[in-house]
Design brief:
The chain has 100 residues and is mainly α. It has 5 helices and 2 strands, in the order H-H-H-E-E-H-H. A hairpin with a 2-residue loop joins strand 1 and strand 2 (60-61).
């Protein structure tokens, strides 16, 4: 399979998923359980992606400077710091751990 074939198949799949979502009757989307699920799924997916990118290295569990950066960002969020301060805290903590 060439790269362009994979791109075309992926694009067609994305279009079909979008079309499937648009074809669902509006009455089913207004149910409370569906609305709760739609609100929680993106958060869960983002948390899983963050954990996998921070602590995963192939099939191994890895604790390095990225984990320190994530911890610093979490601490800054607990202090209700602005977004740029959160990012800066994560960068500084990761750089400090890498420098050591």
């Amino acid at each position: 399979m060439t790269t362009w074939t994979a791109v075309a198949v992926t694009a067609a799949g994305c279009y079909l998923v979008k079309l499937l979502g648009l074809s669902v009757p509006a009455g089913r989307l207004e149910r409370p359980a569906v609305r709760r699920l739609a609100a929680l799924v993106p958060v869960a997916l983002l948390a899983a992606l963050t954990a996998q990118q921070t602590f995963g290295d192939g099939r191994d569990l890895l604790l390095d400077a990225r984990a320190a950066g994530l911890g610093a960002a979490a601490f800054a969020l607990l202090l209700r710091a602005p977004f740029l301060v959160v990012i800066a805290a994560a960068v500084v903590a990761a750089a400090a751990v890498r420098a050591l």
